[in-house]
Write the structure tokens for this entry.
Amino acid sequence: MTRLARFILGLLIALALLTWAVSGVVQTTTREWFERDVSVHAQLAMVSATRSMADAWYDPEGLQKQLDAIDRNQHVIGVAACNADLTTRSLTPDLPEDFRCQEVGVRVRILNSGVGGANPKLQPWSTIATLPTGRVYVAAMPVISQGQVLGFVILAHDLSYIERREARAQTFLLVVFGILAVLAFGVPLLVARRVRHDWSMEVRKLMRKGGKQPREFQPILSDVRELVARMAEEREDLAGHWTADRLKQVLNRNLHGEKIVILANREPYSHVFAEDGSIEVQHPASGLVTALEPIMRACSGVWVAHGSGNADRETVDRNDHVRVPPEEESYHIRRVWLSDEEQQGYYYGFSNEGLWPLCHIAHARPTFRAEDWAYYQQVNQKFSDAVCDEADSEDPIILVEDYHFALAPAMIRKRLPAATIIAFWHIPWPNAERMGICPWHNELLEGLLGSSIVGFHTQLHCNNFLDSVDRYLETRRDREQNAVIMHGQKTLVRPYPIALEWPVRWVDSAASPEECRARVWKDLGLKADALLGIGVDRLDYTKGIEERLLAVEMLLERYPKYRGRFTFVQLAEPSRTKIARYRDLNEAVEALADRINERFGAADYRPIILLRSHHEPPEVFRYYRAADLCYVSSLHDGMNLVAKEFVAARADLRGVLILSEFTGAAQDLTEALIVNPYDLVRSSNAMAVALAMPEEEQHDRMRSMRSMIGRFNVYRWAGKMLMDAAHLRNHERLSGRLTEHVYDSSNI
Ligand code: F6P
């Protein structure tokens, strides 16, 4: 039923109820009036009639004449003159049987006191009765002569005409109410529909491309378009699962298939020399790469990155391009070369000894050196230039990834003012006070505000960023849109929690969990009844690897039954090894593992197995599938995709994820066992709980987390950002056009 039909039906029901209530009141009231009227008139008539009847009482003919005269009144049904002993003296023929002398007499109170007494007590009496012919009013009145009661007169008065009048009044009322209702509701409704129709015709005309826009419509026109775009986006967002194809469609539909340019320090594929001198392709251990590579495969375009593999130069063409993925070749990498000094100052120095510890609460002291800052600026410019060279239009879509390129958005904007630049910060953003530690915090903020959108994993990091902007820069805040306006340039600040492709391609090609388990058991030399925990990280002090191993030690200390049975394997890829803090960590982790192994190990049992080398994704997924638990113990982490990968790998719904509360992932994967990694007792408890968890509970938790990461996958992540970008782009195009139009004097 349409909304209008529902409205009219409701209106009619309300109207019927109202009419029913009003006509009820009217009926009772008018009936009372009429009946009172009739009784007064009847009694008056009887008073005068009884006087003349008393005179003619002993004259039967005269008495009959008087009765006939009264009976001629059209509303009188019948009259009777009755003796005091209730016999009939005279009557008209139509007087109803029920109201003749005998029947009425017994109801008149005088009759109790005898007939013809000296003190007549005969009282007037009346009643209203319903006969098959209709309602009647019946009255009796004594006939008295010289103080003597001669008898009484009965008069029956027809009331059925009152009912007829009532019915007429009700019909009249209904008609009047009906007309009033039509006038009261129908006319405004028709007027409103007409106005709406005219309005929407007008708006439709305006929405059509190239239509002349009257000035009064200009302010609302952008709002209408915005609303239409938002509704389309919402439909887009709500319906069904996000896939690579769907992302491609969004790009084509909303961004007209423009090419995407990604700027990230880390390349998705690097080429390295193998020991035999051949060239191998490697997938770097990087959350950023894990997330963005499927996007690039879906959308195609170019990925601008540092060429860090030792065989990278051998594999590029003369434009420093290489087509990837191998065998698929759906997009290309543009490699940018850095000198050792640049690499040292920009990557190791400013990015990883300055910004990395600044943004992570992991108790490493940030180091900011002026020379590193100079290289950071220089390298940001170098990469920005490469990005602009790769752009094939005036307004390309450019994704700037991570803390290595805080200055790039403003640099790119300078060369390509119409570009849509989305900067995504993959690590936490510290609070404003802490940001102030960086001597160049203003420059970093201004650089990022060259973007159209700045994204973080969580709302908390957005808030920290906005607080930093408020604290250090002269800008305007659009709180409605969560945007910052600086020098007329608007930047949206939004949370986009990063995710995985779905399905994850490494899972599709992985062996069954049983096969993976058998292979891992063999590789690690585990006993048949062994239990396996796993950790997968770059060797980074933010990952809480030491705390993780200490928790394993505490588990073995507090739960002796797991000694000799539980093994924790740590896949640790050496990372940023030119930085002393990372080298120290490597040594500390090794020493810790040795100590625990010495304390609880045996000839055929090692509680901790450290595998410190690069592992390609198929191998990592084999470990995920073999493990009984996975412990992600980051001290601070923007998101942490290892946690999501472990869940993605467990199509068998087995295994338990233990997850640090200090990761962005803890907000998404709420069915994991969430722990504070500094709390070793609770963390070791969580491991014990995981190892003893009934299979059914493991299934329930896994099922729920898998459904979450399946729905909120990386295509949705990118799709949301691209749709926001499209929306912004549309808005800017429109407001540009509107501005021109408003100030075009021929139009005024
Ligand atoms: O997780 C944060 C992050 O910087 C990623 O964004 C990056 O890909 C990863 O760490 C690896 O770091 P790097 O590129 O320095 O090896």
About this structure: The two ends are 46 Å apart (CA to CA). The domain at 515-711 is CATH 3.40.50.2000 (Rossmann fold).
